[in-house]
Each structure stands twice: as structure tokens, then as C-alpha cells.
Amino acid sequence: MADKIDVLIPDEKIDARIRELAKQIDRDYAGKSVVFLCTLKGACFFACELAKRVTIPVFMEFIRASSYSGKSSTGNVEMLVDVPVDAVEGKDVLIIEDVIDTGITLSNVKELISGRNPASLKVCSLLDKHECRRVEFEGDYIGFTIGNDFVVGYGLDWDQKYRNLPYVGIVR
Ligand code: IMP
Ligand code: MG
Fold first, then answer.
1. I need a labelling partner for 14 at 20 to 30 A (CA). Which of 25, 31, 146, 164 fits?
2. Residue 69: predicted pLDDT
3. CA of 54 to the centre of ligand 2 (A)
4. Digit-coded pLDDT (tens) for 43-57
5. Model-level pTM?
6. One-letter-per-residue 3-state SS of the chain
7. Which ligand 1 atom is at minimum distance from the Cα of 134?
């Protein structure tokens, strides 16, 4: 039987919020260019939509990180796809994520990328499940703060399914 998915955030609302975020990024990075460091696979839908609405020059780079828990909360990240050092060194880098959940992945990724000496390093996430944090982590640009439901769509998957839904939904 097909899974039932309830719409949590419809596509028009996502679109409107992306336009607001783009304006904010245009203001904050005025006169500069920005490297969108998109985390695969989930954030690529959001990153492309956002990049199309930002008017300053955007350079697209991609990483794919896999976090695992160890003794310390940070430093346990394996880069399955990595970005060359010269693509971030001395650049204004904005990590683009689909959702911040426990915060573990992004705090690891941020630490690793900051070791490559970007001029600045910030994080933009479509979704923030703020109440699910296991490590302290704050995004700089957040599309929507949501509860602790497992969500799919707009890049987010459930066993690789549902990434291409145009809205964010909850699997029932
Ligand atoms: P965390 O912040 O280290 O817990 O990991 C965030 C990652 O977990 C995201 O990049 C997603 O790949 C995945 N994730 C967390 N919550 C969800 C969800 O509700 N739906 C789909 N993927 C999720
Ligand atoms: Mg992800």
C-alpha cells in the first residue's frame, strides 16, 4: 500500500520563504560573491532554488558527509564527496543543508571546512528541528523551524524515496 503523506509546508510557502532568504543573502553579502556548499543529496533541491533567486554571484560546490557517533561529539565525519581546498579557502562560504536535526553532521562539517580557512563560513538550512539537538548548533539562515516529525520531500528522503515531492510532508 502507498504511504500516506500529509503536507506540512506547501510549495508556494517554500517558494515565498526562499525568496525572502535570497534577499537576506543579497543584503548580507552585498558586493561579494558566495560559495554555496551544498550537502548532498538532500539539499540540492533547496540550494538550486535559492541560488536562482540570489542576485550576487554564486559558485556551486558539493559535499557528501556521513557522520558517525564516537567518543566526542565532533570530528567524526567522513567525506564521501569532498570539495577541493581552493574552492573554499579565502572564500565566503555558505553551507546549504536540508534539515538540521541533532546538529551532529553540521557541527562536524563546519569544523572540517573552517580548517580550510574560508573568509567566512555560515550555514543556511531549509528546515530546523530545533528541539532535536544533541549538540549545540545554530544555523545562520533558517527557512522553517519544525517539530520532531520525520519529514520528506523538497530533497528530503525516506530510504531514498520522496525527494522529488514539491512540498515538505510527513509520512503517516
Ligand atoms: P543531524 O543534524 O546530524 O542529525 O543530521 C541531519 C541529517 O539527517 C540531514 O541532513 C538528513 O539527511 C537527515 N534527517 C534528519 N531528519 C530528517 C527528516 O525528518 N527527514 C529526512 N532526513 C532527515
Ligand atoms: Mg542530509
1. 31
2. 55
3. 22
4. 999 999 999 999 999
5. 0.95
6. CCCCEEEEECHHHHHHHHHHHHHHHHHHCCCCCEEEEEECCCCHHHHHHHHHHCCCCEEEEEEEEEECCCCCCCCCEEEEECCCHHHCCCCEEEEEEEEECCCHHHHHHHHHHHCCCCCEEEEEEEEECHHHCCCCCCCCEEEEECCCCCEEECCECECCECCCCCCEEEEC
7. 4
